[in-house]
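Fold these two proteins, one after the other.
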Amino acid sequence: MTADNSFAEQAYTGLKNDILTCLLLPGSRIAQPELVKRYALGVTPIREALKRLEYEGFVHSLPRYGYLISPITVKDIEDLYNFRMILEQAAVSLAIERATDTQLERLKKGTGFSYVYKNRKSYLDFLDQNTHFHIAIAMAAGNRKLTDVLTTTLNEMIRIFNLGLDLRDSAMEMQREHLDIADALSRRDVKYAQKVIAAQITSSRQRVLEMMAQPTNF
C-alpha cells in the first residue's frame, strides 16, 4: 500500500467510525477544510474517503456546501426494526429446529460481551460482537439467504444502535437480554424464544426512539 493509499484509508476509517458512532451527527453538514483539520490529513485523502462513504450511502454531496451526513428518520427506525423483527423471529425458530446442542451451547458461552457507557470505542466493539451473536443464530438456522439479509440489516442499523447506547447505561440490561435469548434457544421452545427476541428488539427500538426525542439531538 502506497503512502497516499494509507492516508486515504486512515481518513476513511476515521470518518466512518465517527459517523457510525454519531460523533458526526446524522443530518449535519461537513466541509473538506473542517475534516482536513479534524483528522490532520491532506485534502486528497479526505476527498477519497468522502467518495467511498458517498458510494456506501453514509454521506451526500452538497454542491458548494460540502457534504451532508445521511439523516436517520423515525420512519427509517420503524422500518428497519420491523424488518429485523421478522428476520430474527424466523432465525430463532429455524435455529431451534436445526441447530445442534453444540451450536446452542457455543451461543450461550458468547453472551458475556458488554460496553462502557460514553466510551465510543467500546460501543463499536460491543456492536461488532452483538452483530456476530445475532448472525450466529441465523447461521445455526442453516439458511444462508436469511443470514446474508440479516447481516446487511444489522450493519445498516449500526448508527441507530449507537443512538440507543448513548441514552443511558444499559450495559447490564443488554447482557441479560443476550443471555435470555441463548437460554430460550437452549430450551428449544419456539414460542418462548420468539417472545424473548421480540422483547429484546422492542426494548432496543424504544431506547433509540427515546434518544431521537431528546431536544439536544437532531
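Now the second one:
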Amino acid sequence: MLKDRQKSILGATVQDYIHTARPVASRDLVKRFKLGISPATVRNEMFALDDLGYLEQPYTSAGRIPTDKGYRFFVDNLMSVFNLNGEDEKLIREAFGIKKEKEFVKELSRTVTRISETFTAVGMPADDIFYESGFTELFAGPEFRNPNCHLSLWQLIDSLEEEMREMFEDQEAEVERFFIGEENPLKYAGDYTMTISSWRHPYGFAGFMTLIGPKRTNYSKHRAIINSIKSLAHE
C-alpha cells in the first residue's frame, strides 16, 4: 500500500508528465504543485516509487516518468473526473441527433477526435459499419517524432477493425475500460493506451468506440467523453 504522501507525489507526477511529455524531477513538482513538503522529501519518495515499480527513470534524463503500473494506479485510485465544457457537450449532443447509422458513426468519430485530440474509431460490427479519424492528431504528439514508433502504430491501426469486431461481437455487452501498455489485448498496442467503450443511440442501434493514444493520454477527458455519451443513451 502506498502512503498518502506517495499517492500525492505519484498523482502529481502523472499529471505533470501528461501535460509536458517531459520526465519529471522533484523540483518540477515542488514548483507546480502545492505538496507542502521539501524538494528533498519529494526526491526520496520518488526514489521509493521507483523501487516499487510506479515510476522509472529514462536513461537520458534525471527525471522520472510513470510506468504502466503507475498509470494503472492513477486511473484506478487518483484520477479526478470532470464534466466536459458546454461546447464539447454540445458537439456530442449534435452527433447524437443524427438518426442514420452510417452518418452517426462517422460524425461521432470525428467529434470525439476533435474533443480528445487523439485517434478515434467508432463501429457497429453487426451492421458492418466502421469509421476512423484522428491520424493527424495522433502523429502530432512528441512520442511520434521517432520514426521507429510509426511502424507499430500503423500495424495496430491496420488490425484494429478486425480485432474490435471480435471484441464487441456481443452488442448487448456494456463495456468501458482503459488498457494501458502491456495490458492491451491487441498485438501491436503495447506502447499505447487504448480506451474502449460501448455506446447506445437513443434510436436503439449500438456499437463501440475506441480511442488510441500514448500512455500519457488524458485519461480524465476520455472518462468525461464516455460519461457524456452514455448519458445521452438514456434521454
